[in-house]
Specification:
- The protein is α/β, with parallel strands linked by helices.
- It folds into two domains: about 260 residues, 3-Layer(aba) Sandwich (Aspartate Aminotransferase, domain 2); about 90 residues, Aspartate Aminotransferase, domain 1 (Alpha-Beta Complex).
- About 35% of the residues lie in helices and about 15% in strands.
- The chain contains 13 helices and eleven strands.
- It has a seven-stranded mixed beta sheet, sandwiched between helices. A four-stranded antiparallel beta sheet has the order 8-9-11-10, covered by helices on one side.
- Strand 4, helix 8 and strand 5 form a beta-alpha-beta unit.
- Helix 5 crosses helix 6, helix 7 runs parallel beside helix 8 and helix 11 packs parallel to helix 13.
């Protein structure tokens, strides 16, 4: 039976032969003259081998991430593959470039949501259909469904950025059922460690057109190493892997990721996440009690979205205090809203003190 991915992928990608780097082809020996590298170079840090292209370590961290993902859903066997990418953003870009033809295809997004889905589509002249979230930030399934037949990819973010909420499981399943013959469904789980029980990765076995995006940038606290993962059925990965660069992850980044995915690193991540959730809940409760705050939206992430009952979102006021937040006023749905990432207890106390000092009449 032909997979949906095979039906959707453009012929140019279907016929693409992946570039085989020297490291990927491999070989054994003690003199390496196969990759046009310098045999020696200056030393700029701890490593003595910056002159060599990276070993193909992504295989190692992909396997480790798959094991971690399995444990996170109660030890279930996951019928999917893992692909290491340079942050979730590259994963988004790869999926659009793999399955969408410029000037011909379209994707679906549900704003307010992560802006990179639309940006990546725009960058290669792929159209974006926008179906706004409902008033409570849940999906408008009835409004999305008619667009599925004409769209290659549907992007969902759960927990969602910038609203912080989890998309109800039954809504995702309803869309997976409706898109079986037409559309790939991508669920961006960048913040999933803050709500691990809501992951849909175990549904890939039943819905091979489901793709899950993950990252080490959030709960793992490794934003600077630029490592993310795609989790998908082999039928999808067969095509995405054709577009992956020959040396996708630099060795220093891969080595850090490898350590983070070992038991000690995972335990540290979970302790860190628990502490951050505690600080988030305390901060949200304190901010919600301020007279000029209209609403603090429920969050399953490492940030809170705050709507102020003032003329603006207090972004400039906080900036004057040396506190940099994220102004969301560019989206009409989020007027007077600011997104505040959760930091240390001391940083959040300073932010709270600054808000309490706001001259509100």
């Amino acid at each position: 039976m032909t997979s949906l991915a095979t039906k959707l992928v453009p012929e140019v990608v279907k016929n693409l032969i992946p570039y085989q780097s020297a490291r990927r082809i491999g070989g054994k020996g003690h003199i390496w003259l196969n990759a046009n590298e310098l045999e020696q170079s200056e030393r700029y840090g701890e490593s003595e081998s910056y002159n060599r292209y990276p070993d193909f370590l992504p295989h190692v961290i992909e396997k480790a991430y798959l094991e971690y993902s399995k444990d996170a859903v109660g030890g279930e066997a996951l019928q999917c593959e893992s692909l290491a990418v340079r942050g979730a953003d590259e994963g988004i870009d790869l999926l659009i470039r793999t399955f969408c033809q410029p000037g011909h295809d379209q994707i679906i997004v549900c704003p307010p949501t992560y802006a990179m889905y639309e940006f990546c589509a725009d960058s290669i002249a792929v159209n974006t259909v926008k179906v706004p979230l409902a008033e409570d930030f849940s999906l408008n399934v009835a409004a999305i469904t008619p667009h599925l037949k004409d769209s290659k990819v549907l992007f969902l973010c759960s927990p969602n950025n910038p609203t912080g909420n989890v998309i109800p499981h039954e809504q995702i399943v309803a869309l997976l059922e409706a898109s079986k013959d037409s559309t790939l469904v991508v669920v961006d789980e960048a913040y999933i460690e803050f709500a691990p029980h809501t992951s849909v990765v175990n549904l890939i076995a039943e819905y091979p057109h489901l793709i899950v995006i993950r990252t080490l940038s959030k709960a793992f606290g490794l934003a600077s190493i630029r490592v993310g993962f795609l989790l998908a059925d082999k039928s999808v990965m067969d095509y995405v892997a054709r577009l992956i660069p020959p040396y996708p992850i630099a060795d220093p980044s891969a080595l850090v990721a490898k350590k983070a995915l070992q038991q000690e690193g995972l335990a540290a991540m979970r302790r860190q996440t628990d502490e951050l959730v505690s600080i988030r809940n305390w901060f949200a409760e304190e901010v919600a009690g301020l007279a000029f705050v209209e609403k603090v939206y429920p969050s399953s992430t490492n940030f809170v979205l705050v709507k102020f009952g003032t003329d603006d979102c207090l972004y400039q006021y906080l900036l004057q205090k040396g506190i940099v937040t994220r102004n969301q006023a560019h989206d009409p749905r989020l007027a007077r809203c600011v997104r505040i990432s959760i930091g240390t207890r001391a940083s959040m106390q300073e932010t709270l003190d600054a808000l309490k000092a706001y001259p509100f009449n």
